[in-house]
Amino acid sequence: MLIGICFLFSAVVAFAGDTNTSPTEMAKRKTYRVSAPFVPEHNFAIGLVTTYFDYDEPKVMEEDGFMYGVVGGYTYHGINKLMINASLEYSSGDLDYDGETWDGTPVREDTDDWIVECRFLVGHDYVLRGSMGYRKHLITPFIGIGYRYWNDDIDGIGGYEREVEYLYSPIGLKTVSLLSDNWKWGISIEYDFFWGGKVKSHLSDAVPGLNDPEVDQDFADGYGVRLSLRFKREFASNYALSIEPYIRYWDIDKSETETLTYYGTPVGYVWEPKNDTTSYGFRLSFEF
After folding, report:
1. Torsion sign over Cα 273, 193, 228, 152
2. Tell me: the pLDDT tens digits for 148-206?
């Protein structure tokens, strides 16, 4: 989520014209602009997101369909080439469920789904020069922490609510490059280290008397990857529009088991099968 002043000259003129800025603050700003002249120190973004979501438990069930939502974030590029980013994304939609009951009867139903994801990243900026010696490329390796919550409510007879939580660490890099005075582009590549998660199934929604088991997904029993391509068009007064197509993938192993009870009496065991999730989509953001 980057937006900024494209020319070092314009930044210097703006700073020189600010008579209320202290010499110390001037020195700090200049130090930063020398390192990364084409990104701003502070950047806010808010936008819309569209995703095609596909969740698959091989030989068990599949849910897929479109989800729509909003995303917001803040990015700081500061002194000592520090980058900080915080973001929040929410999306919802009606998916198609294709599976079967416990006795093998095929089930095709709609589901009501929503996902919220919050992330916090820290990184270090590296500026690379272009063929003419100008500082034209910014590369930022980063690491952070992320939390993902998915609420999945299956409609129809025998349907029930599931709550899926992931805790993970994004590890990757982002780039920003100048295309022209008003255009920038960049990529983001990321590996998501899986710290763990849990799945709670409200089976009592389907059969009164059953408990609502919660199973754990253990440390490193899965991973995620992300790739996106971003284009940004800047306008006057430091406003910009950006579009970012992306792909996200999760691969999660079979969970731990938990006892299934019926009115308190154990009747079996439940677990979350091995599964994968693939999401394709794009974000359209207004930045300031």
Report:
1. positive
2. 999 999 998 889 999 999 999 999 999 999 988 889 999 999 999 999 999 999 999 99
pTM across the whole model:
0.85
Cα dihedral sign for 34, 37, 43, 49? negative
**CA atoms 174, 180, 181, 183: torsion sign:** negative
Cα(167)–Cα(147) distance, integer angstroms: 5
As a whole number of angstroms, the distance between CA 163 and CA 57 comes to: 16
* Whether domain 42-287 has CATH 2.140.10.10: no
The Cβ of residue 26 has, within 10 Å, a number of other Cβ atoms equal to 13
Alpha-carbon distance 69 to 52, whole Å?
12
Q: Where are the domains of the chain?
A: 42-287
Q: What are phi and psi of 238, to 5 degrees?
A: 65, 30
Q: Which of 147, 50, 31, 135 is nearest to 92 (CA)?
A: 50
Q: Where are the alpha helices (DSSP H) in 115-246?
A: none
**What does the buried/exposed string (b/e) look like for 238-251 if buried means 16 or more CB atoms within 10 Å of the residue's CB?**
eebebebebebbbe
Question: How far, CA to CA in Å, does 95 sit from each of 55, 207, 250?
Answer: 10, 23, 18
